[in-house]
């Protein structure tokens, strides 16, 4: 059976527990020498506090009356301190022997390694997540740059095509005008050659 804690033993001593819990702890105290010793020591302190004679009450100044009114609280505080001290002392006496230092070191080393592994795993997981986010951001940035370059290429291509078409249209017009001029020159030359010479 689990031993009741110090607070429950004090509540048992001062009859402040629920009836079913009080019955359970009473059975335990009857069968457990350590808990019975603590309860009996607490009862002894309680009886000593009750038997503690209080000085005869006199009319005291207001400051003294305030101190006197704190006396019940101080008595309870002293009683609680004594009970806690007894409990601590009994716990020290009934505590198991100090474990082997080598075994403690080995256990501590195992726990530290396990904790270190957990922390490293957490750090690696966080690092991988951060790297994934960075890589996604880098790919998004590259996609945006490629998209802008593609848009600019299409704009440049359309502009160049317009310029080439404009040059082609102007060249065609110039060829037409040059052809017309050549026809006129040939016609004029043919006319001048077919005319009879003048005397």
Key traits:
199 residues; mainly alpha; rod-shaped
Protein architecture, described:
The chain has 199 residues and is mainly α. The protein has 2 domains: 1-52 and 70-95, no CATH class; 114-199. It contains 6 helices and no strands. The chain has helices spanning 6-13, 19-31, 33-51, 62-69, 71-94, 101-194. The protein is rod-shaped. It starts with 5 loop residues before the first helix and ends in a 5-residue tail after the last helix. 6% of the residues are buried. The model has no long low-confidence stretch (mean pLDDT 78).
Proportion of residues in β-strands: under 5%
Shape: rod-shaped
Mean pLDDT: 78
The total count of strands amounts to 0
Structural class: mainly alpha
The helix/strand order is HHHHHH
Instruction: Please give the radius of gyration in angstroms.
Output: 54 Å
